């Protein structure tokens, strides 16, 4: 069984790196850690980076998850190969680009690019952004799946994720005590559906709603409150149509053994208890 510790980063291709960088700093509220000729590294917490925009195909999305050590990484590689997922071992140059000690890359059953990483770099400097969005850290991702039941089995049976709740067939899965780190949303293609950052207070969510709305950033869901995790949320669109979420107040699952996933109906009130409804382009 592969043991994931946490989500580590996302890597997003873009044809307009300057535009992506100005959105990430001026609107989303991330801090530039480093820029290179064809990539920009952004921080949201004490990690060296949690988002990398690179010059490339905007459909090219990768999610990195941290595993404990190199021994676990090798075991994970063997498990994945045995199950028919070809594994790429990161070269030293590729590890440098990701600021990790070692990593492997593979595709989940839908074809999503997944990386497992060991010893992602932290920064001695505290995260300090130019726009104060109140971000406390990168927290979870929504991932597209072409077969929710199959991919739920992959994430739970191969990667030891646990289902905290389901909305219809959307599983919200945890890899640590946080309510969820991965949500699977049905689609006809692979890719990341949304990238979540936690913020400090509900005031931050509402301040951002006004800030983004006034600047014509498309708000695609919220402000609202998820009945599942209990979080207050706001979703909006960034470069290349990527959806970003701010949320605050996500539950922790403290009774790991005693928690049973709750089944919510696939209806608006399961997504938002305040009555907000997602825009048509919230997901593709
Ligand atoms: C709409 C998506 C799948 C969703 C649903 C519930 C939560 C939550 O309980 O926090 C999310 O964060 C979501 O992104
Ligand atoms: Fe989310």
Cα end-to-end separation: 32 Å
Could you estimate the helical fraction of the residues in percent?
10-25%
By CATH, the architecture of the largest domain is named Roll
What is the global morphology? Answer: globular
Mean pLDDT: 97
Structural class: alpha/beta
Number of strands: 17
Query: What ligand species are in this complex?
Result: the ligand CC(C)c1ccc(C(=O)O)c(O)c1O, fe (ii) ion
Low-confidence stretches: none
CATH fold title of the largest domain:
2,3-Dihydroxybiphenyl 1,2-Dioxygenase, domain 1
| Proportion of strand residues | 35-45%
Order of helices and strands: EHEEEEHEHEEEHEEEEHEEEEH
At the first level of CATH, the class of the largest domain is Alpha Beta
Rg over CA atoms, rounded to whole Å, is 18 Å
Name of the CATH superfamily of the largest domain:
2,3-Dihydroxybiphenyl 1,2-Dioxygenase, domain 1
The figure for the number of domains is 2
* Biggest sheet details: 9 strands, mixed
Domain VOC: 6-119, 137-249
Keywords: Metal-binding
Protein name: VOC family protein
Organism: Aquibium pacificus
């Amino acid at each position: 069984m592969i043991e994931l510790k946490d989500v580590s980063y996302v890597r997003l291709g873009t044809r307009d790196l300057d535009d992506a960088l100005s959105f990430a700093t001026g609107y989303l509220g991330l801090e530039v850690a480093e820029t290179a000729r064809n990539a920009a590294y952004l921080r949201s917490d004490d990690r060296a980076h949690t988002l990398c925009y690179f010059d490339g195909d905007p459909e090219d999305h990768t999610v990195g998850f941290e595993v404990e050590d190199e021994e676990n990484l090798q075991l994970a590689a063997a498990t994945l190969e045995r199950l028919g997922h070809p594994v790429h071992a990161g070269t030293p140059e590729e590890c440098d680009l990701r600021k990790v000690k070692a990593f492997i890359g593979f595709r989940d059953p839908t074809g999503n690019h997944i990386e497992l990483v060991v010893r992602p770099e932290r920064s001695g400097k505290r995260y300090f952004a130019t726009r104060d969005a109140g971000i406390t850290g990168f927290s979870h991702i929504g991932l597209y799946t072409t077969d929710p039941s199959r991919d739920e089995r992959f994430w739970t049976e191969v990667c030891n994720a646990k289902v905290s709740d389901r909305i219809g067939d959307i599983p919200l899965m945890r890899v640590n005590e946080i309510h969820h780190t991965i949500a699977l949303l049905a689609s006809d293609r692979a890719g990341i559906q949304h990238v979540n950052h936690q913020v400090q207070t509900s005031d931050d969510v509402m301040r951002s709603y006004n800030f983004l709305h006034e600047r014509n950033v498309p708000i695609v869901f919220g402000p609202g409150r998820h009945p599942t995790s209990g979080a207050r949320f706001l979703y909006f669109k960034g470069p290349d149509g990527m959806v970003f979420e701010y949320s605050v107040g996500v539950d922790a699952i403290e009774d790991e053994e005693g928690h049973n996933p709750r089944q919510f109906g696939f209806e608006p009130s399961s997504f938002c208890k305040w009555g907000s409804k997602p825009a048509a382009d919230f997901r593709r």
